[in-house]
Amino acid sequence: MKLLLQNTAVGLVPLYDSDFDEKRKLKVGQVYQADIKVVRNILFHRKMWAMINTAWALLPERTQNGFRSFEGFRAYLLVSAGFYDLYYSPRLGEYVEMPKSMSFASMDEAEFSECYDRIKDVIWGILSTRRVITQEVFEQYLANF
């Protein structure tokens, strides 16, 4: 059972009616164990994807082709931002950088915020090198997400 709870002065309170209904199933006086996690902000998650999608759309076709696909671009951003794991490839005889997942289960809010900032810097580096847009226009795009 998973519940969304808000911490108040009187204790943890179910956030939504569905959470309240689940909490009512718990027996009074019974001891339960909880794993407390801060829920990631879905709007911030969507902002990250909007930024990546916009950057992809702004890239010249030749640059897009260099990444081969949107998925290749996303992977490049994560690895360049430092969010990757190293795996040994016996076929290649070397270590390979594999991008980490940005899923809610994989990153907490603090790590995701750091990931966002680093990816934003990587995107700006790509766009500025190719003189796609000015930094002011880039910041305006980000403000609109």
- Determine Rg (CA atoms, Å): 21 Å
Mean pLDDT: 89
Structural class: alpha+beta
Helix content: 40-55%
Strand order of the largest sheet: 1-2
Task: Furnish the topology, listing elements before pairings.
Layout: E1 5-8, E2 11-14, H1 17-24, H2 42-58, H3 61-67, H4 70-80, E3 84-89, E4 94-99, H5 109-129, H6 135-143
Antiparallel strand pairs: 1-2, 3-4
Helix pairs in contact: 2-5
Description:
It is a single chain. The chain has 145 residues and is an alpha+beta fold. It folds into 2 domains: 1-36, no CATH class; 42-143, no CATH class. Helices cover 50% and strands 14% of the residues. The chain has 6 helices and 4 strands. The chain has helices at residues 17-24, 42-58, 61-67, 70-80, 109-129, 135-143; strands spanning 5-8, 11-14, 84-89, 94-99. A two-stranded antiparallel sheet has the order 1-2. The chain has a two-stranded antiparallel ribbon with strand order 3-4. Strand 3 (84-89) and strand 4 (94-99) form a beta hairpin. Helix 2 runs parallel beside helix 5. It is elongated. The two termini are 33 Å apart.
Question: Outline of this structure?
Answer:
50% of the residues lie in helices and 14% in strands. With 145 residues, it is of the alpha+beta class.
Describe the structure using short key phrases:
145 residues, alpha+beta, 2 domains, two-stranded antiparallel sheet, 4 strands
